[in-house]
Amino acid sequence: MHPEELEALADRVYAAYEVLPEADGLRVDPTLLAEKLLGLKVVYRRLSRDGSILGLTAPAPVAVPVLEDGLRWYALDGRTILLERGLLSPWVTPGRRNFTLMHEVGHRLLGLGGEAPANRLASALLMPRSLLRRRLAACIWRSGPLPDRRLDPDRWEAFCRLAETLGVSRQALAIRMEGLGLTELRQGWILRPTPVLVPGAGEWEDERCRDTTRERGTPSATPEHRPSRAS
Q1: Could you tell me whether strands 80-84 and 41-45 are parallel, antiparallel, or unpaired per DSSP bridges?
Q2: Among 87, 139, 83, 110, which residue's Cα sits nearest to residue 10?
């Protein structure tokens, strides 16, 4: 799907989300969007031993393995999103959890398309362009490079507060703003590493580069109904 088509899809979803009684107009709650707007069920289970699988969903009934009191099979019913239980840990940033859930929502809206479109749609759903521009206008945001935290602490603090309110990481917000032409990123710019599960430890720590997706076959998942894996 073309990027503008993804943006248009996100706009339509956000327009429907805005009229929900629970929507506060400040941010997009991914659980509210998934459950109240789309009629999906969000369930947390331990999906892998090393945290390599963060989310699973499928458009049709299929059984997938989960690690609950040993290896068990969970019956996805075509309306459920399974998320790694470790995402509920206090060590995990809300931005990581929110993006993972919205990534799986993206798969459902795209018919389980590729990872890159699901990521782009997840970003557009969490930070709809109309909402983002409205919030930036309230901050009297000036276009240009992101503020330097030492040279322009007030604007930097406003940027950080906006990311926290939206429930996203500062890096995700910066990349989204750049994609919409609202800021410019310095070459090599990065704010913080991505939290991932440490293999075998069951705890979360920061690593700068790591692939958090590992494709593994599922005995009962046919190719056309194979669950998606969040990246």
Answers
A1: parallel
A2: 110
Could you give the domains of the chain?
A: 3-128+193-229 (1.10.10.2910)
Mean pLDDT computed over every residue of the chain: 80
Half-sphere CA count of 119, side-chain side, radius 13 A:
10
Nearest to 185 by CA among 146, 129, 141: 146
Residue-wise DSSP of 109-139: HHTS--HHHHHHHHHHHHS-HHHHHHHHHHT
Residue 229, C-beta contacts closer than 8 angstroms, at least 6 positions apart:
53, 54, 55, 56, 213, 214, 215
Give whichever of 93-107, 185-199, 210-224 has the largest mean pLDDT: 93-107
Q: Virtual CA dihedral for 192, 195, 170, 96, nearest 10 degrees?
A: 170
CA 31 to CA 83: how far, in whole Å? Answer: 12
Alpha-carbon span 4 to 145, nearest angstrom: 24
Give this prediction's pTM: 0.80
Which two tokens mark 149? 């935290």
Candidates 95, 120, 92, 94; CA nearest to 106 is 120
Looking at per-residue confidence, does 159 or 127 come out higher? Answer: 127
What are the DSSP calls for 140-162, one per residue?
Answer: TPPSSBPPPTTT-HHHHHHHHHH
SS3 of 61-77: the string is CEEEEEECCCEEEEEEC
The predicted-structure confidence for 116-152, as pLDDT tens digits, reads as follows: 999 999 999 999 999 999 988 887 666 667 777 887 7
